[in-house]
């Protein structure tokens, strides 16, 4: 079967619609993953053993099971207990929770990397727990984490095609519907691959820049 | 009473279905891991090659397979390759996509581990007049392997998780069977919870296996490695 450029231009607008949803899902998912990760990291540091253990186990469980199955779980099981979510929302929650367990490790490493002396100095200055976190620990812990977090957001971007399985009309789903309508798979599937490759290559450049900008801790 | 019995036999049948799916998932994970391991070493060593052409080829392979998602690669292998005359069964397409994708991630692990071995080891090889291949085979790789192992374990778990995607090209793995049970019984909670637990158990087995392998390989290296 020959590559047909006319067909490519014909389906391009539909695919661009899909790209928009893909990017939207990635952005929302990233924001959620950043928040969930922080919550998990803080809960695991909690002095309450019951809380830290159960959150720790739950995070391990989510990290050890496939995102696709989790998406099915959110999309098919939750409606049975009365929580009916639109596909995109279910998808973003799935992405956010799954990658939140990965970003939690980044936060943990970042927080552990803040020298003990900083904690002691904060105590010596009579700062309370909240002030210590917001003014001393976080400002030092977050910049070095940024490249690692961005790395996971790029990984998440590459997982968004899974959302097509729960009927989100993102890039992969648009390509599938185009392919099924015209029964031409070569162009749509190859274009999806090309879109992902181009966006990932750009994001690798962005990542290198972030690493240069934030990777080093100023002494 | 009869109803409960009926219910029980029904569920045991569905559970059998899910176990069959688990076997397919395990089979895919094993075959995918073997292919991934081969590709990881080929591409990882390729990136360190003396020849520009081999380095460029290895880099292109790694960037391509890490840059596009596994899902797209799988669909490409299953739907596009037939048009250029290569027809793959779902299992072949699955193993190919999983192996090539995870192999690309593994290649960076191989490269990183080999480069993490200290310069003095290479210098010692030169001093002992070992050839490049001999040095790699007898001195560098045995040490680098131990560095790679934990990350390979994580990659194997990623591969296990990625196998769920093959259900979308109609391969009857765990996820596919759970969907079958869902559509036949209308029950969603039981099948999906069951397979989540099975996936998690498989992941635990992998991480346990890698840890014990690591202990075995590290034996006799105490004091050598700091």
From TrEMBL, chain A:
Any Pfam family hit: BPD_transp_1
Source organism: Mesorhizobium escarrei
Primary location group: membrane
Protein name per its UniProtKB record: Amino-acid ABC transporter permease protein y4tG
Compartments in which it is found: Cell inner membrane; Cell membrane
Keyword annotations of the record: Amino-acid transport, Cell membrane, Membrane, Transmembrane, Transmembrane helix, Transport
Residue ranges of domain ABC transmembrane type-1 in the record: 19-208
PANTHER family, per the entry: L-CYSTINE TRANSPORT SYSTEM PERMEASE PROTEIN TCYL (PTHR30614:SF0), MEMBRANE COMPONENT OF AMINO ACID ABC TRANSPORTER (PTHR30614)
Membrane protein topology class: Multi-pass membrane protein
Membrane-spanning ranges: 20-43, 55-75, 81-99, 189-210
Entry similarity comment: Belongs to the binding-protein-dependent transport system permease family. HisMQ subfamily.
From TrEMBL, chain B:
UniProt protein name: Amino-acid ABC transporter permease protein y4tF
Annotated membrane topology: Multi-pass membrane protein
Ranges for domain ABC transmembrane type-1: 22-206
A Pfam family this chain is assigned to: BPD_transp_1
Residue ranges of the TM segments: 12-43, 64-88, 189-210
Keywords, sorted A to Z: Amino-acid transport, Cell membrane, Membrane, Transmembrane, Transmembrane helix, Transport
Compartments where found: Cell inner membrane; Cell membrane
Family membership noted in the UniProt record: Belongs to the binding-protein-dependent transport system permease family. HisMQ subfamily.
Record-linked InterPro entries: AA_ABC_transptr_permease_3TM, ArtM/GltK/GlnP/TcyL/YhdX-like, Ectoine_EhuC, MetI-like, MetI-like_sf
Primary location: membrane
